[in-house]
Design goal:
324 residues; mainly alpha; Farnesyl Diphosphate Synthase; two-stranded antiparallel ribbon; 15 helices; 1% strand; globular
Length: 324
């Protein structure tokens, strides 16, 4: 049994039922749409988001129809954003599979994203789940704002640590926060519990993104992400932001110039990576990541001990200890 299977164990039956409901929520009478949504389902990942929804729901009460609605709504709206992201990024691959735009071109991919978005909206309206819709729609809005803020700052490469955390809170953490908040809302009538779970999800999401940032400086070849890809894409992550804040004027100018104008020069990119490692960028980001994990676990431990709490604890640790 894998670690993911162990985490999923307390909600295994609910996850199986969710699969059926999620498939049904994407059903269409248009053959092309049906073909594409079938492809989307087939290439699904570890399903971390539904796991956060169901485990948060189970932690706070009894899983019910609203919990399934929350999980489907999250997946529909998030999948829509991924399809649109691949168009924006002109990406041909996602999780080792061809992207929708690579197989069916941009126009169809955008329309499929619109279909998934409207399916989520209709599902929440049909179920009368307006608070769940508010929670998830707020997250999607923040994700868009975070992406745009990152694009804006990438032009001048003038991201401070504060702005960086604003970006990842919106871009990554807001969705995991919405998973935990909507799961808790579906089973609990206590606003304090729901807010604690939202905050728990936000902390986990920030730690998750910091782990992703650290992968960019991985030297052992254990991960699928090419070393230095964030630099090549002019993305300013915490290890680089930290060392730039301490660098001399000349060093800072050389690094910024490399990221801006020579980001495809492998030797220069490698020198930037070496500089970040030798000047404490990795250790600084690691300390921050572990601090956010501890803050998340502290919130989690404020709930009574249960199978769901243990599974969430393992899920938090998995996001930090994962190899890719």
């Amino acid at each position: 049994m894998t670690i993911v299977d162990q985490i999923k164990a307390p909600i295994a039956r609910e996850m199986d039922e969710f699969e059926i409901r999620f498939r049904a929520s994407m059903k269409s009478n248009t053959p092309l749409l049906d073909k594409i949504t079938h492809y989307i389902i087939k290439r699904k990942g570890k399903q971390m988001r539904p796991m956060f929804v169901f485990l948060s729901g189970k932690l706070c009460g009894e899983i019910n129809d609203a919990t399934y609605t929350a999980a489907s709504l999250i997946e529909l709206l998030h999948t829509a954003t991924l399809v649109h992201d691949d168009v924006v990024d002109d990406a041909n691959m996602r999780r080792g599979f061809f992207s929708i735009n690579a197989l069916w071109k941009n126009k169809i991919a955008v329309l499929v994203g619109d279909f998934l978005l409207s399916s989520g909206l209709l599902l929440s309206v049909e179920k009368g789940a307006f608070e769940l819709l508010r929670i998830v729609s707020q997250a999607v809005r923040e994700m868009s704002e975070g992406e745009l803020l990152q694009m804006e700052k990438a032009r001048k490469l003038n991201i401070t640590e504060k702005v960086y955390f604003d970006i990842i809170r919106q871009k990554t953490a807001s969705l995991i926060a919405a998973c935990c908040e909507s799961g808790a809302h579906s089973t609990s009538s206590h606003p304090d519990e729901v807010e604690r779970m939202r905050l728990f999800g936000e902390k986990v999401g920030i730690a998750f993104q910091l782990k992703d940032d650290l992968f960019d400086y991985d030297f052992d070849g254990q991960i699928g992400k090419p070393t230095g890809i964030d630099i090549k894409e002019k993305k300013m992550t915490l290890p680089l932001i930290h060392v730039l804040s301490k660098a001399s004027f000349a060093e800072r100018r050389w690094i910024i110039n490399t990221v801006k104008h020579h980001n495809t020069d492998r030797q220069r990119v490698q020198k930037v990576i070496d500089y970040v490692v030798s000047h404490g960028g990795i250790s600084y980001a690691t300390v921050k990541m572990l601090a956010y994990r501890e803050e998340a676990l502290e919130i989690l431990y404020s709930f009574e001990e249960s199978d769901a709490r243990k599974a969430l604890e393992n899920l938090v640790n998995y996001t930090i200890d994962r190899k890719k």
